[in-house]
Design goal:
There is one protein chain. The model has no long low-confidence stretch (mean pLDDT 89). It contains 8 helices and 7 strands, in the order ααββαβαβαβαβαβα. The protein is α/β, with parallel strands linked by helices. The radius of gyration is 18 Å and the shape is globular. The protein is 47% helix and 16% strand. It has one domain (2-242): Glycerol-3-phosphate (1)-acyltransferase (3-Layer(aba) Sandwich), CATH 3.40.1130. It starts with a helix and ends in an 8-residue tail after the last helix. It has a 7-stranded mixed beta sheet with strand order 1-7-6-2-5-3-4, sandwiched between helices.
């Protein structure tokens, strides 16, 4: 059984990479006529995820609520590397991601073309620059997606949120929208220390089931309170998602 699961996951990876190359080459050719913009990059990502990643990975997602009608900072709990794939079908947003991903061939080019802000989480200057960048993006009329735990959480509730993002959002008067994500299977949690092993574990099964919920937009002058309220809302929401549905054994 494990062999067949690995074969399925590997076939999916090959298809995903081939299709990513196809999309990127097509996008490069169209740039001869139309220049690259933030909006065109986001459209490229959404098309790839909707028409390629979702069907190949057999993602089944139940969604509650909807994105805010305007530019905003979206903050979400972080379960695994596939979180941005699940979310990006329903939300056009630039993602703040750890700089290590920039070392992955092909994936890094796709990420850069479709809207990624790299951050070295252990580097204070890098984190500061990322916060300045997301303010500019939101004020420029686009969304930003941030994972304020700073890393993956594999426990029933979230890790304590880092406050820097919220302090910056409060200072700049940005609208903040909490987002909750949860998966049905324990295999979807990033419990294996390397990305290849985790990918084989997560996508060797026939389908991946997830829940996604968009909360009420918030705007506050107190960044600490903003962080606490977003964290509380997300924890309440994932607890409701887990009840009678999750197989994670929390």
């Amino acid at each position: 059984m494990r062999i067949f699961q690995n074969i399925l996951a590997i076939l999916r990876a090959i298809l995903l990479i081939l299709m990513m190359v196809f999309y990127l080459l097509g996008y490069v050719l169209t740039r001869i006529i139309w220049k690259h913009t933030r909006s065109s990059g986001l459209r490229l990502r959404k098309a790839y995820i909707r028409y390629t990643a979702y069907p190949i990975l057999n993602l089944k997602v139940k969604v509650e609520g909807k994105p805010f009608d305007g530019p905003a900072l979206y903050v979400c709990n972080h379960r695994t590397f596939s979180d941005p794939i699940v979310i990006s079908k329903y939300l056009n947003a630039f993602v703040i991601a750890k700089a290590e991903v920039a070392n992955y061939p092909i994936i890094n080019k796709g990420a850069e073309a479709t809207g990624i802000i790299w951050v070295q989480r252990t580097d204070k200057e890098s984190r500061t620059n990322a916060r300045k960048a997301f303010v500019d993006v939101v004020k420029g009329g686009h969304n930003i997606l941030v994972y304020p735990e700073g890393t993956i959480s594999t426990t029933k509730s979230t890790l304590s949120f880092k406050k820097g993002t919220f302090l910056e959002a409060a200072k700049e008067g940005l609208t903040v929208v909490p987002v909750a994500i949860e998966y049905r299977s324990k295999k979807d949690l990033w419990l294996i220390p390397n990305i290849v092993g985790q990918y084989l574990n997560a996508f060797g099964k026939w389908k991946t089931e997830a829940k996604l919920s968009f909360g009420t937009p918030m705007k506050m002058e107190d960044g600490v309170q903003l962080a606490e309220e977003c964290e509380q809302w997300i924890n309440d929401e994932i607890e409701k998602m887990q009840e009678g549905w999750s197989n994670m054994g929390f």
